[in-house]
Amino acid sequence: MRSIDTASPSHFTITNEEILVKKLLQTHAPDGRDFNPEALLYAAELLMSQAMTPSDAKSDSCKLKLESINKDESVTIHKISHEMLYNCSTDGDGPHSTTMDIFESLERYSWGAKMVLVIAAFALSYGEFSLIIKYYPSNLLASSMAFLKRLSPNLLEEIKESKHRVKASRALAKEMVEVTKCILDCERYPVQYVSMDYNAMLEVKNRIRITAYWVIRTAVRCAAQLTDLMVNSMQKLLRKQLKVFHQLIDEPLMVVLDTEGRVISMNAIDMVMVWGASAYPFSTVNEEQLWRGESWTLKLLMGGIDPVVTQWVEEGRNICLYGSINIEWIREFTGVVRDITTKAGVQLELLYVGSNSREHTGHILATITREKLSSYLSHTNMIFFWSRLESIKNSKLRLYNGVETDAIIEEVTSLLTDDFNKENWILISEGSSMDMLRLHGREAIGRFTSFQVWGDGIEKVGILNAIRGAYDTPVIVEHYSGSKIVAYVDYKSKEEIVCERCKRLMQKCVLYQCYQKGE
């Protein structure tokens, strides 16, 4: 409900009135156009009086001949009506600002004509409002109007609860009409026959201007009250509909249509989260094509969320993501890694990515920052990171109809499951390599603690394969023999190659092959 407008004529001092009159005169430039305000006021008064009559009241039928309204005045009335409705629904800059805007739009009319046009605009809104509440729900027309305006089915009960506001608006409407009639009478009286001195005449004119201001401002406030009743009714219905909708679906949707209105994606939110604008036009076909070009890499996992991490990936650095809500494990793990990287001169970037349980990450993030344990994602980027994982999983499952046969789905699901179960985990990668190593809490600390076991292999195969090779037993169901031919560069080359299948060092052999074809 709106607060009461404390600004009233009784609060205005002489100085304030003088300032107001000057501002009003700046918006006043009548051109003497042919216009019959009395007839329009009569029509507005009749409209409001009939609207105020109870639906069961009996009245003598009568035929009325109303003069037709000029097109300019008709357009002006509708414009003012919409302006009052817009400013009331948005609160604008207050009733004074709306009132002055109306004065500017009516600069070509006399003071009385301005008042009549505004009252007619208010009567238009009031009449429509009254017709609905007067005949709703028994009348089909009133019910249809209420439906189109999205009003609540309990409209009558809500109006009864605010009957004092409706009654006050009716009383003010009657007073506005009576005051306007007086102003029209004053303007119609020939000035040359008035025996007043200059100061007295100036005072009368100023009274007319001030009165016009307050009548129009009152109409604006009355329109605001009616708008509140309508909007409150719509809001209650909307809240009810939203509540029902949220019971049906608890996740947001982004349905995409093509230029011809055909659905090309039932939900493009996951595409937006994974690829952003590059997924345009967000069709299912485009989604499939994008996934064909993706592999399980840190680039896919992070997606450019943090520019620093993106630079690490591009530079091919050793990166270790870790997630946990156990600050003691975090202290122990980061301490072990820091000791090893310092003593052995090994480069490994640690990055805390938090948890999907946001309520647990606040104090942990503060501790990591205060104790300088490692690098970390900001709170906002953590939300993006975990939302991205969910989107990757949802997108892949939707394309594969829920069948988890994809390596990306398996890895993402494992990370989400670990986080859901509140497990500590790490994920090591070398830049944008498709080879990544995921370990759990105590196992991760144990691997790094036994650095002496695998440390010597870092120079040959890198930290990731050194850790894996020292502990993992290759799982090969049957005998396997593989080879990889590379160009001969230097007999003394120390380059080591890791088997893509078992992740062990491959034995170096020299192969001499003749390419000369026989005759």
From TrEMBL:
Domain Sieve element occlusion N-terminal: 16-231
Domain Sieve element occlusion C-terminal residue range list: 286-515
PANTHER family linked: PROTEIN SIEVE ELEMENT OCCLUSION B-LIKE, PROTEIN SIEVE ELEMENT OCCLUSION C
Domain of life: Eukaryota
Organism for this UniProt entry: Acorus gramineus
Protein name: Protein SIEVE ELEMENT OCCLUSION B-like
Single GO biological process annotation from the record: phloem development
